[in-house]
Amino acid sequence: MASANGKSLAVGIAGLGAVGTVVARRLATGMKGLRLSAVAVRDPERGQQRLAKDGIDAPVVPLAALADHADIVVEAIPAAHFRAVAEPAIAAKRIFMPLSAGALLDNFDLVARAEAEGARIIVPTGALLGLDAVRAAATGEIVSVRMITRKPPQGLAGAPYLVANGISLDGLNAPKRVFDGTARDGARGFPANVNVAAALALAGIGPDRTRLEIWADPAIERNTHTIEVEADSARFRMTIENVPSENPRTGRITALSVLACLEGLVAPFRVGS
């Protein structure tokens, strides 16, 4: 399955970091019904060099122009540039696939704009699991949702919340809880670390009712997320331990979730939502 006229869907990627690069490489090698059409980065010269290094033939365009080259716009760029990618994609009636789910919480007017324009916003699962179950439970009544994130200290270093509150992780030799609050506040304070909490909140009971704990744990090597849900239909607890990518803030599975989401848009057979 591809577009209505039988052509492959064009995919534009904003960002060539740990996620964008993996997605670009895979699209460049060939995915049925999909093709890499363009890349947008903050530094075009550096972006072109990176594509050339990987043998990828794709134009590098400005962020605001990416939607002109794509049916699907994948956002994998620092949250500060979120609207620069999102607004043109929605105005052009594209499928917008944001990785910065936390930024979407603070720019939720874009959802109403997407509905008005006829665009679609699809948030990939990212580094989380069980969103199908959470969405199913949300069609009934969910009493509570709690997520506990544990990361090696280097995976949290430099987070705005830590800087603003003078929390140092240097020389940490025991687990330290560095945040306990709502998913909304957690996404703001750790924009590069817990987009998973925003995705969980959007799938379930919202960012102000979803609770989040973040721990810096020097004893672990994998980014670990545990979800606890109490609902009228089920009680469940799930844990995932993600292998970090070249960027310690991001798990390897995040890029794979984008690829799976893209495949789901064109596949004639799909399991789960």
What is the level 1 CATH name of the largest domain?
Alpha Beta
Which stretches of 5+ consecutive residues score pLDDT under 50? Answer: none
**N-to-C terminal Cα separation, in Å?**
17 Å
The shape is globular
**What is the CATH architecture descriptor of the largest domain?**
3-Layer(aba) Sandwich
Number of domains: 2
How is this structure best described in words?
The protein has 10 helices and 11 strands. The protein has 273 residues and is of the alpha/beta class. The chain folds into 2 domains: 9-126 and 253-266, NAD(P)-binding Rossmann-like Domain (Rossmann fold, 3-Layer(aba) Sandwich); 131-249, Dihydrodipicolinate Reductase, domain 2 (2-Layer Sandwich), CATH 3.30.360. The strands form 2 sheets. It has a 6-stranded parallel beta sheet with strand order 3-2-1-4-5-6, sandwiched between helices. The protein has a 5-stranded mixed beta sheet with strand order 8-9-7-10-11. Helix 1 crosses helix 10 (252-266) and helix 3 packs parallel to helix 5 (109-117). The mean pLDDT is 94.
Keywords:
six-stranded parallel β-sheet; 10 helices; 273 residues; Dihydrodipicolinate Reductase, domain 2; single chain; five-stranded mixed β-sheet; 24% strand; Rossmann fold; alpha/beta
